[in-house]
Amino acid sequence: MELNDTTINILKNYATINPNIVINGGNQLKTISVARNVLSTSEVTVEFPQTFGIYDLNEFLSVLSLVDQPRLRFEKEYVVVGDATGRSSVKYFFSDPEMLTTPANSINMPEPEVKFTLDSDTLSKVKRAASALGHDEISITPITGAIRLSVIDSKDATSNNYSIDVEGSYPDNVNFQFILNVNNLKVVNEDFEVGISSKLISHFKSKQSPTEYFIALEKTSSYQEGA
User: How many other C-beta atoms are found inside a 10 Å radius of the C-beta of residue 5?
Assistant: First the structure.
């Protein structure tokens, strides 16, 4: 089988969430962070013929980069990664899936009270602001007719902050401040429809690909009805 760029890019993204991965037979990829506060699934256009574990995903990706147009031939305990000419190859052994961190169950996302669109340009600005200011929190709050995303330090009320407004919706007569850790916002560079539940779970669904993320919010988040 031949791995395409789209599949490799998803694997690169997943390596930022968890250094290891279990790939099941079929075309669905899944990963979960070691802290189990970020889970992602994606459907790709290639079909993996069997279930196998990769202990060091970044190392495996480096192996793929050793050859042009990597072609994979699967054996029971290893995969042979070859190039288009068949002149060079790498024999790469699998890891026991039982020893790796894998998603146990799918997440049943509660009905989100807050919804908004987050395009890749806005996401990039928020991440750059967090890096420039040295903050690791994104505050999500309501403003008239929209949603405000602010990069803050909740422990310091006098700290500098950055804000940007996006289109969104939420119920009438509610007040909320959802806090999302920037370090958990490890998503591909695409546009997302975002839903946030008062149960402190968020859902990022890509508008360009069948990729989605479930990201836990910080416990300092708040949601009040009748505000």
Answer: 7
Is 85 in a helix, a strand, or coil?
coil
pLDDT tens digits along 79-110: 999 987 778 889 999 999 999 988 877 788 89
Residue 80 corresponds to which tokens in the numbers above? 């042979």
Edge-to-edge strands, sheet with 137-143: 162-166, 146-152, 137-143, 174-181, 222-225
Place of tokens 């024999």: 91
Between CA 164 and CA 106 the distance in angstroms is 32
Question: Cβ(216)–Cβ(142) under 8 Å?
Answer: no
Q: Shortest CA distance to 171 belongs to which of 226, 117, 221, 113?
A: 113
Contact 140, 147 (CB under 8 A): yes
pLDDT in tens, 134-158: 999 999 999 988 999 999 998 888 8
DSSP structural state of residue 95: B
pTM: 0.93
Q: How far is CA 108 from the centre of its chain?
A: 17
Tokens 């002149």 map to which residue?
A: 87
Which pairs with CB-CB distance under 8 Å and at least 24 residues apart come from 151-156?
A: 151/126, 151/182, 154/179, 154/220
